[in-house]
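A reminder from the course coordinator: this example appears on the midterm review sheet, so study it carefully.

Given structure:
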């Protein structure tokens, strides 16, 4: 039996793999990572360090400060945007090194980041519809599974914990209908109830820095089209330069598409839902520094890797 652990670089999927490996010590354990090319530098550090620990292997892993900036500096045209070439080259090198030091890891890359997907689709994702994760994660993983896995011998494990078990049940049902077995090793376990951070401390692995900064998940460098006001309020406070970069990208995309598309929406005033740009939200936060939001930092992934709920919705604007 081969057990494939789907990881997005989150702490939950690390603990799920650890629990599952202890439960199935004689099975083959493999790891899959669908890279958006837009993860936090410390997410890549954590992914590699965490897997090396699970496999009982010592490898050289760069610290977050050794990575180049993921952002493109200066003014640029989003029509030809293709990420920061230095960042992309660094990641390509990291993948090549991991292929030799951690051959159990399948590191999949579609080749674009979320902003390129939004531009190419002429559609900025939102809390309900996520072309970024559909194209960069789910379709890439689906294609790999169909080409390489065997339903009679392969099991796929995900890091969903007990508090999100409804998401797992939806997924497992869908995959079972297609003939595949999906499991969530943390559901029904006390390790899942306790969460990953104590286990990481025991293992001597520093939790990813986005958690330390109060982010709720460790995906896409803390940027996310599914995130709400509380998330961006935290980003504005702890990563103001990244917030400004997100706002600039949103602005560039809206100009490129020719519509005032935004990730956030707002009902202030007349209770009618309308777009709220990060520029406008930032101005509101600056004018009201006392604003606060209910927000619980945690160990959850954003879930986009396995959230198929709206995959049949249109994800591009008709020309
Ligand atoms: S974390 Fe958010 S922005 Fe990144 S791929 Fe998932 S849904 Fe898209």
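Designed residues:
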């Amino acid at each position: 039996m081969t057990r494939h652990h789907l990881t997005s670089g989150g702490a939950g999927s690390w603990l799920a793999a650890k629990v599952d490996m202890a439960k199935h010590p004689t099975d083959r354990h493999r790891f899959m990572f669908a890279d958006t090319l837009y993860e936090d530098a410390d997410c890549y550090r954590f992914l590699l360090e965490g897997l090396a620990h699970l496999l009982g292997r010592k490898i050289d892993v760069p610290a977050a400060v050794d990575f180049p900036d993921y952002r493109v500096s200066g003014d640029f045209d989003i029509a030809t945007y293709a990420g920061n070439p230095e960042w992309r080259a660094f990641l390509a090198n990291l993948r090549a090194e991991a292929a030799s030091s951690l051959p159990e890891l399948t590191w999949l890359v579609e080749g674009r980041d979320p902003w390129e997907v939004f531009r190419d689709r002429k559609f900025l994702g939102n809390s309900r519809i996520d072309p970024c994760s559909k194209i960069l994660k789910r379709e890439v993983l689906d294609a790999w599974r169909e080409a390489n896995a065997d339903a009679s011998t392969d099991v796929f494990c995900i890091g969903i914990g007990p508090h999100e078990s409804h998401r797992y049940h939806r997924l497992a049902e869908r995959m079972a209908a297609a003939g595949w077995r999906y499991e969530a090793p943390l559901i029904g376990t006390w390790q899942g109830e306790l969460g990953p951070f104590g286990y990481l401390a025991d293992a001597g692995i520093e939790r990813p820095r986005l958690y330390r900064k109060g982010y709720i998940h460790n995906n896409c460098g803390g940027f996310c089209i599914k995130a709400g006001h509380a998330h961006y309020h935290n980003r504005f406070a702890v990563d103001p330069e990244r917030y400004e970069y997100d706002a600039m990208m949103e602005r560039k995309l809206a100009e490129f598409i020719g519509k005032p598309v935004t990730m956030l929406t707002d009902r202030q005033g007349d209770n009618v839902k309308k777009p709220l740009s990060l520029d406008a939200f930032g101005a509101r936060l600056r004018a009201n520094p006392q604003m606060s939001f209910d927000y619980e930092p945690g160990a959850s992934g954003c879930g986009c890797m396995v959230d198929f709920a709206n995959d049949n919705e249109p994800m591009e604007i008709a020309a």
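Residues 36, 114, 125, 130, 132-133, 136, 219-220, 224-226, 302, 304 surround iron/sulfur cluster (CB under 6 Å). The chain has twelve helices and seven strands.
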